[in-house]
Write a structure and sequence with these properties.
about 140 residues; mainly alpha; 6 helices
């Protein structure tokens, strides 16, 4: 929303500058045409550069937002309560969503695994506090 407000302000500023330049064009005694053309082109180029910066910021923000939403999807894996009849389904889902993800660190995977355990499964103890030891203990 803030980006849209910034874009609207930039557009308003550009309109105002163009209106001032148009008024100056009609007053032939104040400037010669070549000087005015240079000012117009300079002003337009500055505004274009400013708009491109805002667009880059918006695109970066959208990429970050989609990255965050993909992270949230990972954490919504179906929980495992310790029931053996649920284990194969849980394990295949967890391997697909979390374990095989090369972008996630083992610390993140441990966080997701712990967050997916409920009941008796949450009480499983391992020799060390690592993702792989907990994953293999299941």
């Amino acid at each position: 929303m803030a980006v849209l407000v910034a874009l609207n302000r930039k557009r308003g500023n550009l309109k105002c500058q163009i209106a001032k330049l148009l008024r100056a064009i009609t007053d032939e005694e104040t400037m010669d045409i070549q000087h005015l053309e240079v000012r117009i082109k300079t002003s337009i180029n500055k505004e274009k550069l400013s708009m491109f910066k805002v667009i880059d910021t918006v695109q970066s923000s959208e990429k970050l937002s989609s990255f965050d939403s993909s992270r949230k999807k990972k954490s919504t894996a179906h929980p495992f309560t310790g029931r053996l009849d649920e284990f194969n389904w849980f394990k295949s889902q967890f391997i697909t969503l979390i374990h095989n993800n090369k972008e996630s660190t083992n610390s993140e995977k441990l966080f997701y695994l712990r967050g997916s355990l409920r009941g008796a499964a949450k009480k499983i103890e391992t020799s060390d506090d690592s993702y792989l030891s907990l994953f293999h203990a299941l």
